[in-house]
Amino acid sequence: MSYRVRRLRKQPVGLDITAFMNMIVVLVPFLLTTTVFSRLAVLELSLPAASSGFDKLKGDLQLEVVIRRDALEIGDRMGGLLRRVENTSKGYDFQTLSSLMQQLKARYPDKLEATILAEPDTSYDILVHTMDAVRVAKISQQGHSGQVELFPEISVGDAPVAGRELAKTGKAR
What percent of the chain has pLDDT over 90? Predict the structure, then answer.
């Protein structure tokens, strides 16, 4: 008996990717429409430089804005406190701070640096508003509005302990 061996010829099976392509066609537009595009704004900041004895010789403004719980203190590192802007009923008075920065910029047009010193419990929002008021001023002239650069090179640090009252009494105001 001779057996005839019958062999099956195997054909490669075609890959059916129709369902996958349909899913991609639906998924891609869905993902694109639900994507949130965000714009990040980054400010370059630096730590305050250690002051040396040579700073006094220049006679130049070393602008410092100290954020206290009850006020904003504008001062010169070498000359001391220039102005204290008390809080209003709505909070910090950034409008007055901005106008003071404009006055200082008019006196010192070449000055670009400012230091902002904040107390440890200062909120991030208050710090950003203060930085904005020191960096640029919003102006409007004859129906046109714009921004004027004031002190764009900002350093951020910790505020010194509040005044002599704290040293004498041992408690904060």
Answer: 27
pLDDT for 6-47, tens place per residue? 777 777 777 888 999 999 999 998 888 887 766 666 666 665
Alpha-carbon distance 128 to 10, whole Å? 72
35 within domain boundaries: no
**Is the pLDDT confidence value at 138 over 70?**
yes
Specify if 91 maps to a domain.
Answer: yes
Q: What is the DSSP annotation of 39-108?
A: -------BPPPPP-THHHHHT---EEEEE-SSEEEEEETTTEEEEEEE-BTTB--HHHHHHHHHHHHHH-
Domain span at residue 126?
60-159
Distances (CA, A) of 140 to 87, 114, 129, 133, 147: 25, 24, 19, 15, 8
